[in-house]
Amino acid sequence: MTASIQTTTGNVLVDDLSKARRLDAVHYVTDSTQASDFYWDRDSGLRIRVGVHDIGIVPQYDDVDHSADGDNDYVLNNPNDDEDRERFQDVVGTFCR
Q: Alpha-carbon distance 86 to 93, whole Å?
């Protein structure tokens, strides 16, 4: 494919999106402290340098002790019906430590 970069003024480039085959770029981030740079090569011949720094896209979870304030006991002892109790027990057993 031939480059299709056009200029509109001295400092503005136009990348023709109607002729682009791919408009996304995938970059895997493994933890929230990772920083990296990569190039996004466009079909038009334009090369975009992308920097990824100090992002929070990888969630960090902190354990919470619910035994002291009785959240779990309240929900288990005051459900709307047995189905709510079973659903809550399933969530606690599957997702809680």
A: 10
| Tokens found for residue 57 | 């896209």
Closest CA to 50 of 35, 30, 65: 35
Give the SS3 label for residue 22: coil
Query: Among 24-28, 43-47, 66-70, 81-85, which stretch is predicted with the lowest mean pLDDT?
Result: 66-70
What is the residue extent of each domain of the chain? 5-52, 61-97
Tell me which amino acid residue 97 is.
R
The reported pTM is 0.40
pLDDT at site 45: 79
- Tokens 């970069």 locate to 5
- Mean pLDDT across the stretch 7-28? 74
Buried residues in 47-80 as b, exposed as e (16+ CB within 10 A): eeeeeeeeeeeeeeeeeeeeeeeeeeeebeeeee
